[in-house]
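Notes from hallway chat w/ T.B., transcribed later so I don't forget. T.B. wanted the structure written out for a chain they're using in a teaching module, and asked if we could keep both sequence and structure tokens in one place. Agreed to drop them here.
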Amino acid sequence: MRAINLLPRDDSRRSGQKTQWIVFVPVIAAVLLSAVLSMLFLSASGTVKDRQATLSSLRAELAAIPTPDASKVQTQSALAADKQTRVQALNTALSRRVVWDRIFRELSLVLPDDVWLSTLSAKSPVSPSLATAPAPATGAVAATQFTLDGYTYSQPAVARLLTRLSVIPDLVNVQLQQSTLTKVGTAPAVHFTIAADVRGPGGGS
């Protein structure tokens, strides 16, 4: 006959293996977690040390910069104030300056071809601003600041020159002082003298 074992099997070995895994898994997890935390701590610590070293280096450079001398600072401030004063004085002087190059350019544009000048005299107005002078009339103030002396061929040419001079914005009170017949060589001519005043920088247009 075939023998049959009716006794229960011995599962103590398999049970013991399961118990060992249950104990080892938390331990391994704890070890891995500790290793990760240690690496993070070491990395953060290295970053902090690097930044501390950079901060110390910057503090050393800042400490090495010399402190500005108070006397030099005061001198620089005084120079800046003096420069500002000079700039204001220059602007004031320029605002009162007569632009002679513009006046002569305007004169050259209106001077007729049949007129030539022998002398020209000009001086700046005494007042920094000159109001518009009245039109030439009997008893008008004589113009003395801008004087033209020259020649042309006829009296109408003198009148034409007077009209053209009166349209120059920088000249006011244009007056004919004299206009006489004469000769240039053997040719008949008209000798004239015209005077005007110069409009100051503050004068109206």
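Follow-up for T.B.: Residues 12-64 form the longest helix (53 residues). Might be a good example for the class.
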